[in-house]
Amino acid sequence: MARRKQAAPVQMPPSGFNPDHGSKQPNGNGYLSSPILEKTKSALSNGRPTEPSPLHALEQPGFIQLVVCVAGIYASFLSWAILQERIFTTSYGTSTSPAKFEYSIFLNTIQSTFAALSGYIYLLTSSRSSTSTPPIFPSARILAPLTLVAITSSLASPFGYASLAHIDYITYILAKSCKLLPVMFLHLTIFRKRYPLYKYLVVFLVTAGVAVFTMHHPSTKKKSSSAGNNSLWGLSLLGINLLFDGLTNSTQDHIFSTFRPYSGPQMMVAQNLLSTLLTIIYLLLSPYIATHTPIFSLLSIPTTSSNTNELSSALAFIRAHPAVGKDIFFFA
After folding, report:
1. Rounded CA gap, 236 and 77, in Å?
2. pLDDT tier at 88 (50, 70, 90 boundaries)?
3. How far is 108 from 87, CA to CA, in rounded Å?
4. pLDDT at 32
5. Going by DSSP bridges, is the β-strand pair 25-26/32-33 parallel, antiparallel, or unpaired?
6. CB–CB of 128/54 below 8 Å?
7. How far apart, in whole angstroms, are the C-alpha atoms of residue 315 and residue 110?
8. pLDDT bucket at 168, cuts 50 / 70 / 90
9. Which has fewest Cβ within 10 Å: 134, 192, 210, 313?
10. pTM score, two decimals?
């Protein structure tokens, strides 16, 4: 009978053995170590990890970039304000036949078109090669609030431009500084948002200061009743402009907080694109609206060429006075 070979005894692995990390041996300090663990420690101790963290790869904006952005904002607003006042207050005609530009919807269309194009160019150039361009309309749910923003922003500008015919530009700018009040009011009433007590105090002080500065006039010279009526009508138009501005800003805040990570450039393109479509539709339909609907009569709007056929009238005005075309181009 043949002898069988004795089976090797089963050996238990030592404590601390991990088949995924190799065998561990006690080091000089009495702790178990493995080759992989030692390589990791060596890589970390010699400098940076082998794979840099994405957080470190992002460039943080510096002080110079902040200064450039702030200077660009102020330069843009100052040039925009100067050109806006020039377009609506300058007489482009002769001394015997003065002519003023009165086509606010046409101007708003040109401005929104340029804003949509510049915003889209910024989206294309700012997107990295490894990432795709963010969509302008990421979902169907965002169309409703974006359309509301486009409508309110399109309606705000004509009321503001119309008020300049009855109030001076300093009053217009000072009243626009009170935009905090309608924005906060609409946040409280529509979006049910609450603010700290100090923010209410800041808004009240800013609004009160602007109102006192705007409404106070020296009593050295009495104004006629017609001038007073014009000022009151101008302030009323300006109040409607501020209301639409407040609704625009509060709805934009709601979009940014609801549809994250929706960015400012995406909002710029979407809002101005929708505004351009809305104003173009109005310009094309304005002759029909003026002659076949009672809207103009109900609102007591005179049926002149500047509002019954604004598109053709504005183009004819630019052809007759090329200087206004240059101002409109730089304004947009």
Report:
1. 24
2. confident
3. 12
4. 47
5. antiparallel
6. no
7. 12
8. confident
9. 192
10. 0.66
- b/e string for 266-276 if b means 16 or more Cβ within 10 A? bbbbbbbbbbb
- What backbone torsions phi and psi does residue 284 show, to the nearest 5 degrees? -75, -30
Inter-residue long-range contacts of 141-147, CB under 8 Å, 24+ positions, other chains counted: 141/259, 142/255, 142/259, 142/262, 142/270, 145/251, 145/254, 145/255, 145/258, 146/255, 146/267, 146/270, 146/271, 146/274, 147/274
Structure-block tokens of residue 201:
């105090």
Mean pLDDT for the stretch of residues 129-134: 72
| Cα gap 245→154, rounded to integer Å | 10
Tokens (6 digits) for 17: 């053995």
Q: Which long-range contacts (CB under 8 A, 24 or more apart) does 229-236 make?
A: 230/166, 231/166, 231/167, 233/166, 234/163, 234/164, 234/165, 234/166, 234/167, 234/171, 235/163, 235/167, 235/171, 235/175
Residue range 134-160: mean pLDDT, rounded? 88
**Distance from C-alpha of 225 to C-alpha of 110, rounded to nearest angstrom:** 37
Instruction: Give the separation between CA 182 and CA 171, rounded to whole angstroms.
Output: 17
Q: pLDDT digit string (tens) for 194-237?
A: 778 888 888 788 777 766 775 665 544 444 444 444 578 888 88
What tokens does 5 get? 């070979």
Q: Which long-range contacts (CB under 8 A, 24 or more apart) does 309-313 make?
A: 310/103, 310/105, 310/106, 310/283, 310/286, 311/106, 311/283, 311/284, 311/286, 313/103
- Matching residue, tokens 């609004």: 207
